[in-house]
Automatic annotation (TrEMBL):
<dbReference type="InterPro" id="IPR020471">
    <property type="entry name" value="AKR"/>
</dbReference>
<dbReference type="InterPro" id="IPR023210">
    <property type="entry name" value="NADP_OxRdtase_dom"/>
</dbReference>
<dbReference type="InterPro" id="IPR036812">
    <property type="entry name" value="NAD(P)_OxRdtase_dom_sf"/>
</dbReference>
<keyword id="KW-0560">Oxidoreductase</keyword>
<dbReference type="Pfam" id="PF00248">
    <property type="entry name" value="Aldo_ket_red"/>
</dbReference>
<protein>
    <submittedName>
        <fullName>Aldo/keto reductase</fullName>
    </submittedName>
</protein>
<feature type="domain" description="NADP-dependent oxidoreductase">
    <location>
        <begin position="11"/>
        <end position="301"/>
    </location>
</feature>
<dbReference type="InterPro" id="IPR050523">
    <property type="entry name" value="AKR_Detox_Biosynth"/>
</dbReference>
């Protein structure tokens, strides 16, 4: 095990949308991004104490890492943590594709180590997990995690790492009010029992649970998320309306409540941020303590929506 302790924040900062080109309506999220906004966002996040940034090679095939690396040049490396990922499905054909992909990530991010390095999708657990060990030994990665793995794959990878004196130190899965597979398949219970931090991505379902969108104001046309969610917005309305009303009772907003729900379930949400004011929402969410009645009601409304929001990249858990 590495001797430095991984700092687990209340909320981690996601940069999936930073892989978009920056042109309105273009890319997976249809995000409009400017360097000035992202630098202001980073300054505000730093001041608020949100310092763990999550990215991946496949977010814009390197663009997210490149943009993030440029934005973070304004801080000392010790002032933030970097989380990025090896994706087996995008591996090259060299002798050690994981090491090759890591070197490319290091170059784009402008650093010589990654605080938390994930295997993004399982691929072949027995094949890929051992490649983490020399990277840990070299210090180029400090901690390792698994994303989109089911429970048996997590246990298998943990055994492989354990034989070398390491362990799985984080799990990251799609987890939201509308997608609670990690509750249902025992992964959250396993993480609690083993003391492994659980990171939740897509807590806001790519913006569909923010309350900002509805059938009259759908997600940006031409984006992948519009294709995935616009037809489902009517079924989400009761849930998003209640998120908004609970939020108002806390002096907050609908997305803050969805994030607070994930925190209440024991997760560290990874929340996509593209604008400086997104940080204000994370501050509010981290301060909200939902009542048990709130949690039960929100989960009932989510169940009644009867939606499958599993991503095309996700295996059945």
């Amino acid at each position: 095990m590495t001797t430095d302790n991984m700092k687990i924040p209340a909320v981690a900062l996601g940069t999936w949308a930073w892989g978009d080109s920056g042109s309105s309506g273009d890319g997976y999220f249809g995000s409009t991004l400017t360097q000035t906004d992202l630098e202001e966002l980073a300054d505000r996040a730093h001041a608020a104490g949100f310092t763990l940034w999550d990215t991946a090679v496949v977010y814009g095939m390197g663009r997210s890492e490149t943009v993030l690396g440029e934005v973070l040049k304004r801080f000392a490396r010790s002032d933030f943590q970097l989380s990025t990922k090896f994706t087996p499905q995008a591996a090259g054909a060299g002798d050690d594709p994981m090491a090759d992909m890591l070197e490319q990530s290091l170059a784009r991010l402008g650093t010589d180590y990654i605080d938390l390095y994930w295997i993004h999708n399982p691929g072949d657990v027995a094949r890929w997990t051992p490649h983490l060990i020399p990277l840990l030994e070299s210090g180029k990665i400090k901690h390792v995690g698994l994303s989109n793995h089911n429970l048996s794959q997590i246990v298998q990878a943990n055994q492989i790492l354990g034989d070398a004196g390491y362990s799985v130190e984080a799990i990251q899965n799609h987890y939201s009010l509308l997608h609670r597979n990690s509750d249902q398949n025992g992964i959250l219970d396993f993480c609690t029992k083993e003391g492994i931090p659980f990171f939740a991505y897509m807590v806001l379902e790519q913006g569909a649970l923010t309350g900002k969108y509805n059938p009259q104001n759908p997600l940006p046309e031409g984006s992948n998320r519009a294709q995935a969610y616009n037809a489902k917005l009517p079924q989400m309305k009761s849930l998003t309306d209640r998120l908004g009303s609970i939020g108002r009772s806390y002096g907050a907003e609908a997305p803050d409540v969805a994030v607070a729900w994930a925190i209440a379930k024991g997760a560290t949400p990874i929340i996509g941020v593209t604008k400086p004011n997104h940080i204000d929402g994370l501050d509010r969410a981290a301060a909200i303590v939902l009542s048990n009645d709130d949690i039960v009601e929100l989960e009932a409304l989510a169940l009644a929506a009867n939606l499958d929001t599993r991503g095309w990249w996700e295996q059945e858990m």
